[in-house]
Every structure is written in structure tokens, then in C-alpha cells.
Amino acid sequence: MTTKELRKAQGVLAAQIKTQHKAFKELHRAYKYDPKESFSQRIARLEPIYKTMHGWWKNRDEFRHRHIGYSLARGRTMEQIEKPSENHKPDAKLIEVYKAEYEKAREEGRLAHEARQTAAAVCARA
Predict the structure, then answer these.
(1) Mean pLDDT, range 57-68, rounded to an integer
(2) Of 92, 43, 28, 37, nearest to 65 (Cα)?
């Protein structure tokens, strides 16, 4: 995967987060508590809200860790990227995975660029 494809995937993830958050807010606003409802009926009505909320949180955390890994790989410091609260620190292992993924893609792109330059130089000499 190239760095361009990784950035495009990050953009797609950001769009998903926006649509999921909007859907969650709409479902949450539409829900009205009914004290006459049984517990199972209430859970059945709340299930789509919880599923949407879970997907939104999952994608939001993935985006956050990918963004931090990408930024660290490009030479930024953690203080420049974000200042997390004590209760919401990012997962260092996950950041390292995404950082390594970006660095691998960047190295592959650099090697491909060098190969193209070498091929162009050979063709120019001929």
C-alpha cells in the first residue's frame, strides 16, 4: 500500500466517522423513553443506537491512532499532535503498528521512485 493510498483510506475513515456520528445523533434524538415498555422492548429499540455508537467509537479510535502514528512517522512530537488527558491516553502498541505501516509504505515508495529514476537515466543514455 502506498502512502497516497493510506492517506485516502484515512479520509474514507473520517467520512465514515462523520456519517456514523450523524446517524447516532438522529437515532438518539428520535428515541423517547416509555415507562410502560417492557425491558426487552426497550432493549430492542435501543439496540440500533448502541450498534451505531459502537461503530462510531471504534472508527474514531482507529482514526486517532492512525493519525498519531502517521504524524510521528513524519517527525512530529506527541505534544505537537495532541495533549491527551490522563484518563484517555492512546495505545502505544497500536500507534507503533500504524507508524511501521506508514514507514514501510514510504520506503516502498522511495524505492519505486529510485527505480524509475534509474530506468529514466538508462533510457536517456541509450
Answers:
(1) 92
(2) 92
